[in-house]
Amino acid sequence: MNDTPLRVGLVGAGPWAHRVHGPGTAAHPGTELAAVWARRPEAAASVAAASGGRATPVASFDDLLATVDAVTFAVPPAVQAPLALRAVEAGKHVILEKPLASSVAEAEQLVAAAERARVATLMVLTFRYGADVTDWLARVHRTGGWHGGSARWLAATLLETGYEASPWRHDGGALADIGPHTFDLLDAALGTITDVLHAHFAEQGQVWHVLLGHESGATSTATMTMHTPADPQITDFAVFGAQGYLHLDAGGDAGPRYAALLDEFVGMVRTGRTEHPTDIRRGLHLQRLLHAVTARIAER
């Protein structure tokens, strides 16, 4: 097994590149932040400097691909998908933000390319890498007998100035940004989500209400908004059934969770594994669910 640090390039220079991707990749013992590229060169230089100053800000995406073994993306879905396609076709392993792409067709094209290239892929579904969450899921699966579940994610993210320059978040709202996390965890707890039974969007408060059907026969509900000044934000999940009620507060620091993601990613690359519960195929499943929710809304 090769224990040489994996040379990783970072694409993007927004809030998550500064707070999570950059410093997380630079600090991890199994990875080296080798290059940073963003649309604005000065922004890429700022991320590189803030992440320890060892990474090289590069002039183009092609320059980044020529420098690294893997790429971590911190850009909007419409930007991520075409660049990630080029990365996997160049044989680079990838860490991908959610949503995976701007459409199901685009996500399907990217997944097909990653499977052909046989590269390692992981989605930045940070909840799934928290020890408290994995312990909760293990207990959920060990106990069984659950009839349903619920999720409440109430935050003020899109009321804060730090995200005023993030058009895709404002356009897609809570469904696009936190919907993938929410649906992923409900799906992981209760079994594959097979149907969006109902969906409603309330203009007042920018609130999404979704009723989901699972392959197991269970149903779950999700209420999501990024326009509620809850302090701290509420990230409540629960399952209920014959064994009672099992609750989880999924809140936590993204830094340690991203480090755990990198543990998994490095292990995949070193052992040649390309399958993982939160790999690119998971991103496609979630993309289809987002599309199904918007289709339900359009029916009303």
From TrEMBL:
One of its GO terms (molecular function) is oxidoreductase activity. Residues 6-122 form the Gfo/Idh/MocA-like oxidoreductase N-terminal domain. SUPFAM superfamilies: Glyceraldehyde-3-phosphate dehydrogenase-like, C-terminal domain, NAD(P)-binding Rossmann-fold domains. Keywords: Oxidoreductase. It holds the Pfam family GFO_IDH_MocA. Residues 164-246 form the GFO/IDH/MocA-like oxidoreductase domain. InterPro entries: Gfo/Idh/MocA-like_OxRdtase_N, Gfo/Idh/MocA_oxidrdct_glycsds, GFO_IDH_MocA-like_dom, NAD(P)-bd_dom_sf. This is Dehydrogenase. It comes from Actinophytocola xanthii.
